[in-house]
Amino acid sequence: MATFTVLGARYLAFLQDLELATYDQFMRWQTAGNEQVDPRIKIVTIDEPDLHSGGQALISDRALAKALRYLSAQNPHVIGLDIYRDLPVLPGQAELSAAFREIPNIVGIQKVAHPKVAPPPLLLADGRAVANDLLIDRDNQIRRGFLFVIDEAGQAYDAFAPYLALWLLEAEGIYLEKLSEKHWRLGAATFKRFGGFDGGYIRADTGSYQILINYRGAGQQFETIPFRDVVAGKLPNGWARDRIVLIGNVAESSGDIFFTPFSHIFGSFKLPIPLSGVEVQAHIISQVLDAAQGTRPLLKPIPEPLEILWILLWSVIGATIVFHWHLGIQIQSQQRSRRLWAQQLLWPLVLVTALVGSAYGAFLWFQLLIPVVPAVLSLGLSGMGVTIYTANKAAQLRQTFGRYLTNDVVTKLLEQPGGLDLGGVSQKITILTSDIRGFTALSGQHTPAEVVTILNCYLKVMLEIVANYRGTINEIMGDGLLIFFGAPTPQPDDTERAIACALAMQLAMDKINQELRAQNFPVLEIGIGINTGECIVGNLGSELHTEYSAIGAEVNLAFRIESYTTSGQIFVSEAVLQDVDRSRLRIDTVRQVSPKGVQGPIAIYEVGGIGQPYNLELPKIEEIFVELAEPLALVYARLDGKQVSEQFSRGQLVQLSNKGAKVLADVGEISPKPLTNLKLNLLNWQNNTQKSDDIYAKVRHSGEADLLFDIEFTAKPTEITECFLAIIAQLSREN
């Protein structure tokens, strides 16, 4: 696609000026430092002082005749008169006519293209009048000359510069030979007729027989002498002997001034330096002589099919390099990231340098004109195309991964060097875990489809809250969430945001439960635990399966802390409080616990609110118990994780509230410790000898010597919930 785009722009000539400017620069580089004049060509210049000395705008016929005789006396190969002389310029008409008749190697000029200018009649009659037409490109520069000029009637005329060169070459036995309508041979050179798409041109005028000019260089490339010195007899001895001598105007007032590739210097603010028409003709003569003698080849555009292949080649190179560049950025390790970026950023410069260098080398050593600007654009566009393609793919991957990972993690995996490497780094993070109370029992009471609907309703709100507080959702474990703050990118307020996020999650449960009630689903309650500390964070697993996660004792402790919570609670560790301004938190209770795997008891804190800038606070709801007229007999067993103890104890449920109950253990039984998870079953349920379905609860308070302990329900069957609510309502009315 990049190649087609570039070829289309090239065919529409959008790139022509840039391409020609590139060849101009190549020519300037090629000839830089070439200050050696061509000894075969001499120029007699007519400048402003020459015109002023004659007292008129044109050199008189008498002065011109006198100069021609002085030059002829030194036996030059040919004298090229690059001055229009279709009309006499008095005085001296007879003298100039005599010079034209008597000096056989004078060649005059005429202009064939419109507006036409006739040649000197005597020279025309003797077959010594040729065309000196020049082609001016649309940027007002001369880059093309003629081998032959063909007029509107189809008549061919010898071009001025090649015709003069033939005078010297034929003296050496080198003759112009026609090979075909488009090809002519002259010594070591074969001239090929210019095509409309040659050398960066697009649909250029191909009239007559054109050739590309290969200039010798900038500055004075030919020895010159003022016309006034020649007329005054100050011509050095042997100056014109066996030379091609040109006579032409260099005065600004003559209008015979043109721009060439050497007129403009890239990056310079100087005004362009023009070149006179006679000097342009001298450059063409020098080019023809060098080409015929095999010392400097002609400029050779490569065939158009090869140009297309060249442009396509760089398109492929650009796409390939950029693709591997993006791949390299993704797979290299973090330790090498700086060096990697330095290397990858150098690639465009290296590629463009290689492209321009190879094209310039072909120009310098073989005079081949190879497209540069289209190839550079093709290289760039193909690279941009691959970049856009990979960006779109990355966006799709980001969107897909974003369903499972946060933007920070996706960015690290897709963009940062080493983001996909296996392994991890030690990093301080804050871990938040949450769990739906009684979800196992709830799952057994509903179909799988209903459970998924309940979970999605819950997770939709929770995940949005986590994203708002810039947490990293590491894992969704059914009803549980594992969230990191500070991974992969640590922030100073990670712990504070984790607490605020937990409060927002608990406050959002009312909204979630309203939606669940509307669908006739049971309400949900969650507990949240938070811890902070050093963990190993990174890509864990193998090449077959990798997860971005964190491991360490601090992660395990976060789960332990969460296990002590009841519905609506948030417990945090001492390390969390040390990481924030404690005065901005509402601490409701402090408990001493002995988590598994931790030496000695630790303090955990129940957080009920946080101040500025979050201003989040959980409502304090007074729990009202009602005394049961007839206690409900039950059995209970301790839960250790998912395992139920085989030892059951007996007791009686003596008080009820909306959230929990008070249980009186039978004499001889031992009251469970606070924060113990229990499974309970009512005996003689609904006047039946069978036990009720399982009830799950957590011990909130218990006395060491007292058999009475306080529990909070974490999960109840629907029929038991309805029964308890009916009992509470009835007893409340009676009281």
Fold and architecture overview:
The chain is α+β, with helices and mostly antiparallel strands and 735 residues long. The protein folds into four domains: 1-28 and 304-418, no CATH class; 33-301, no CATH class; 422-617, Alpha-Beta Plaits; 626-734, Thrombin, subunit H, CATH 2.40.10. Helix content is 37%, strand content 26%. The protein contains 20 helices and 31 strands. Strands 17, 18, 19, 20, 21, 22, 23, 24 and 25 form a nine-stranded mixed β-sheet that branches. Helix 1 (2-11) packs antiparallel against helix 12 (373-401), helix 7 (160-171) packs parallel to helix 9 and helix 15 packs antiparallel against helix 17 (509-518). The radius of gyration is 49 Å and the shape is rod-shaped. It starts with a helix and ends with a helix.
Question: What's the gist of this structure?
Answer:
The protein is α+β, with helices and mostly antiparallel strands and 735 residues long.
Q: List segments where confidence is low: pLDDT < 50 over at least 5 consecutive residues.
A: 328-336
Structure annotation, total helices: 20
- How large is the share of residues in beta strands? 25-35%
- Mean pLDDT, rounded to whole units? 88
Q: Globular, elongated, flat, extended or rod-shaped: what is the shape? A: rod-shaped
Main sheet properties: 9 strands, mixed
Class by alpha and beta content: alpha+beta
- Termini Cα gap: 85 Å
Number of domains: 4
Rg of Cα set: 49 Å
Roughly what percent helix? 25-40%
Give a count of the beta strands, DSSP E runs of length 2 or more. 31
